[in-house]
């Protein structure tokens, strides 16, 4: 399995006709125009081009999808699914923008990660008055 590591300011690009299998990590921005299989972990923005095919678990800060992603997606900031974009898998992000014509086949969760992991509050019990302690 291969690993690509890139740091700002040079953007990472997987061009059309390219195929990558492995772990892609980067800081800053990256654009996929080809085929990527594996895992994507990044502190930055990932763009999936209109002819791209990504079969991966994706964990980034910001994601723009114009092509196809097959796998679960988690973004710390936002996901933009453009008209030609398609995600087959679960999607979790605080902010999600879904354009008309795009496809999302899976569960969508729009809660900040910290809020989603906190335990729910205990239900409040209704208070009743005890008739024996009432005064007339």
Notes on the structure:
By secondary structure, the protein is mainly β. It has one domain. Helix content is 4%, strand content 55%. Strands 1, 2, 3, 4, 5, 6, 7, 8, 9, 10, 11 and 12 form a twelve-stranded parallel sheet that branches. The relative contact order is 0.12.
Report the mean per-residue pLDDT as an integer.
86
Beta-strand portion reads over 45%
Computed CA radius of gyration, to the nearest angstrom: 21 Å
Structural class: mainly beta
Give the fraction of residues assigned to helices: under 10%
Alpha carbon gap, first and last residue: 81 Å
Flag low-confidence runs.
none
Along the chain, the helix and strand elements come as EEEEEEEEEEEEH
Shape: globular
Number of helices: 1
* Total domain units: 1
């Amino acid at each position: 399995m291969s690993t690509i590591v890139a740091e700002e300011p040079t953007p990472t690009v997987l061009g059309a006709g390219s195929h990558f299998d492995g772990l892609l990590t980067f800081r800053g921005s990256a654009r996929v125009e080809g085929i990527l299989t594996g895992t994507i972990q990044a502190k930055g923005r990932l763009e999936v081009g209109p002819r791209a095919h990504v079969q991966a678990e994706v964990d980034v800060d910001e994601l723009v999808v114009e092509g196809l992603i097959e796998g679960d997606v988690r973004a710390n900031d936002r996901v933009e699914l453009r008209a030609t974009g398609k995600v087959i898998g679960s999607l979790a992000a605080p902010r999600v923008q879904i354009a008309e014509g795009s496809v999302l086949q899976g569960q969508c969760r729009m809660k900040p990660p910290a809020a989603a992991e906190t335990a729910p509050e205990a239900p409040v019990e209704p208070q009743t008055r005890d008739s024996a302690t009432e005064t007339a």
